[in-house]
Amino acid sequence: MGAVTDDEVIRKRLLIDGDGAGDDRKINVLLKSFTKWCTSPGTPEEAFTQYQRMLGILAQCDFSMGKTLMVYDMNLREMENYEKIYTNIEQNITSAHEKIAECKKEIQRAKRIRKNRQEYDALAKVIQQHPDRHETLKQLEALDKELQQLSHIKENVDAKLELRKKQFHVLLSTIQELQQTLDNDEKSDNDDNIQESPAENCE
Predict the structure, then answer these.
(1) Residue 23 · residue 17 · CB < 8 Å
(2) For residue 84, what is the DSSP state?
(3) pTM of the entire structure?
């Protein structure tokens, strides 16, 4: 037979050992104990003691398998939870882009209103230089009404822009908190893996 590579040895150990908690050693001890129990001509008391010892080893292996299944189920739930968080973040980012685009449009509209107001103010000053002309007074009144309407529009736009800024700030804060939560979870998982490795080597 050819030489067995390290990868094959590790693969076989993982298949037998389960989660790496020494189950392969326990199974080997169990097999040796069972063989000895079947072939040894010991007293009934010794046979019963050996039988109880084998039951204890079986219980340990069963416990390790149950623990492995629980960890597997927990990892599946964590993956589903991370998928939901990732989907939520993607939706929030898309919504944020849409709100940013809407805010930009509002800002452009406000700039146009401000420019129009400046032009109307300049025109009103020119009109006020000729207060004795009846037509000029009528035009001035019309411009004043339009200026008031534009002022109301600007106030509404300013209020809406302020609301959009607050909503966008809250959204960004939520995204940052979600990202921090993911980073902390990943860091915690890495720390747990680092702490478990020395314990497994000791066993």
Answers:
(1) yes
(2) H
(3) 0.32
Contacts of 27 (CB under 8 A, 6+ apart): 16, 61
Q: Residues with Cβ < 8 Å from 118, sequence gap 6 or more?
A: none
Structure tokens at 150: 């534009």
Across the chain, mean pLDDT equals: 78
Angstrom distance (rounded) from CA 157 to CA 77: 46
Q: Which helix (H) or strand (E) holds 169?
A: helix 134-202
pLDDT tens readout for residues 47-103: 778 778 878 878 887 888 888 888 888 999 999 999 999 899 999 999 888 989 888
**CA–CA distance, 109 with 174 (Å, rounded to integer):** 29
Q: Give the single-character DSSP code of 4.
A: P
Cα(18)–Cα(71) distance, integer angstroms: 12
